[in-house]
Design brief:
Layout: H1 4-8, H2 14-24, H3 27-40, H4 43-58, E1 70-73, E2 76-84, E3 91-99, E4 106-109, E5 116-119, E6 122-124, E7 128-131, E8 137-146, H5 147-155, H6 157-175, E9 200-203, H7 231-234, E10 241-248, E11 266-276, E12 296-302
Parallel strand pairs: 3-8
Antiparallel strand pairs: 1-9, 2-3, 4-5, 6-8, 7-8, 10-11, 11-12
InterPro entries: PIH1/Kintoun_subfamily, PIH1_N
Protein name: PIH1 N-terminal domain-containing protein
Pfam families: PIH1
Length: about 325
């Protein structure tokens, strides 16, 4: 049964509410509505309808009955990230998908020229439930970014990790859950009950999709993911330094409440250094080693019970 919170999220005009109330009192309408709901609950019927919508979208045809102010978004799969729900312990899979209908990432040059802060527009699909290899229930979320963002993640591992951190933060914020910051990248392009991402609807026209959380805007600069310069131009291209983040978990302290109700916080140390991405535009032969001297050391501490920074002393 739908909750009151779900109804609050439905943006309906007073006229639409009036019409819906009137129709709900019509026995014939309720009978047809019940038949429709029963038909749509059949996975085979739902898949058939989604396949028809995909074909119409690929042909550029207008879908009959589709809202005029909405646009159909059919994501393509990229890779999958796995973490867990800190409260329930259940596995959580976040499918990183992409579409050219999502706004491109935006980079803002730092005033000290130390790097670029990225904002990652995205669209988060509805939560789904699936089972893992052992048959245990798990949560699944589709996180859709721009095609350009996908290309950038393919080019650089640090940006890929940054993208996963952004996805974890988005799920936590919009689903009101606490996820582990530790994640892995299984050899899956997609995890879900239907083996493919759900179709989404977004507003037509300039789509103001959410952007990454300010705390996750890492100073990562990468070269243009689409256009490559000829080899003759690469030697004369100015060196562009990038501030990259290399995360090194130091401790994975589980919450151990003592007699006073205190919780031991989790923490990690991030070593950050400057990299010249032109070193490995052609191949991976000159990737940075793990023993390079860091230029910055950052300590990140999770304080799940702190709601106001002013309370800290």
């Amino acid at each position: 049964m739908a909750t009151a919170e779900a109804f609050d999220k439905i943006n309906m005009t007073p006229e639409e509410v009036k019409n819906m109330t009137h129709m709900m009192k019509d026995p014939k309408f309720m009978e047809l509505f019940a038949d429709y709901a029963k038909e749509m609950s059949d996975p085979n019927n739902r898949k058939e309808m989604e396949d028809a919508l995909r074909e119409a979208e690929n042909r550029g045809e207008k879908v009959p009955g589709f809202p005029e102010d909405k646009e159909l978004l059919i994501p393509s799969t990229a890779f999958c990230a796995k973490t867990k729900n800190e409260k329930t312990g259940a596995k959580v899979f976040i499918n990183i998908c992409y579409s050219d209908k999502i706004a491109k990432p935006k980079g803002t040059e730092a005033k000290d020229k130390s790097g670029t802060a990225w904002e990652i527009p995205y669209s988060l699909g509805p939560a789904q439930t699936d089972v893992d290899k052992r048959g245990a229930a798990c949560e699944v979320h589709d996180f859709v970014v721009a095609t350009e963002t996908h290309h950038m993640a393919r080019m650089d591992k640090r940006f890929k990790n940054f993208l996963v951190e952004t996805a974890v933060d988005a799920v936590q914020t919009q689903r009101a859950v606490q996820l582990s910051r530790d994640f892995s990248l299984p050899k899956l392009t997609y995890k879900g009950p239907n083996k493919e991402p759900k179709m989404l609807t977004i507003p037509k026209g300039p789509y103001k999709s959410p952007a990454s959380h300010p705390q996750l805007r890492a100073g990562v600069r990468v070269p243009d993911p689409v256009t490559k310069k000829p080899k003759s131009e690469k030697k004369s291209r100015p060196v562009a330094e990038s501030r990259s983040a290399t995360m090194t978990p130091v401790a994975d302290n589980k919450e151990c409440p003592n007699s006073s109700g205190e919780v031991e916080p989790k923490f990690e140390v991030v070593y950050r250094n400057h990299l010249n991405f032109t070193k490995f535009w052609d191949d991976n032969a000159n990737l940075p080693t793990e023993h390079e001297q860091p230029t910055d050391i950052i300590l990140r501490v999770e304080l799940p019970k702190v709601v106001n920074l002013q309370l800290l002393s």
